[in-house]
Amino acid sequence: MRQGEHDSYQSKPSGIPEVALASAVIPAIPVAGMALILGIDRFMSMFRALVNMIGNGVATLVVARWENELDRQTLQTRLA
After folding, report:
1. Which of 34, 49, 65, 72 is deepest in the core (most CB within 10 A)?
2. Does residue 8 fall inside a structural domain?
3. Does a structural domain hold residue 5?
4. Which helix (H) or strand (E) holds 16?
């Protein structure tokens, strides 16, 4: 990357804080509702990460099986 260029793919936890800041100027959204969403977002982020990790593991097993690279004996030993 050249000097002065920005990396547009930076890691962000989620888009909720940006939405909250952008919609803070709209008076129709109650502050209590926004606080509830922001409070839940941290826990939802943890669950999203857990689901991603499980999905990656399942996808790895599916692809290994599809490519006939899955050693069932080793898998049973490691998961037991």
Report:
1. 34
2. no
3. no
4. helix 16-23
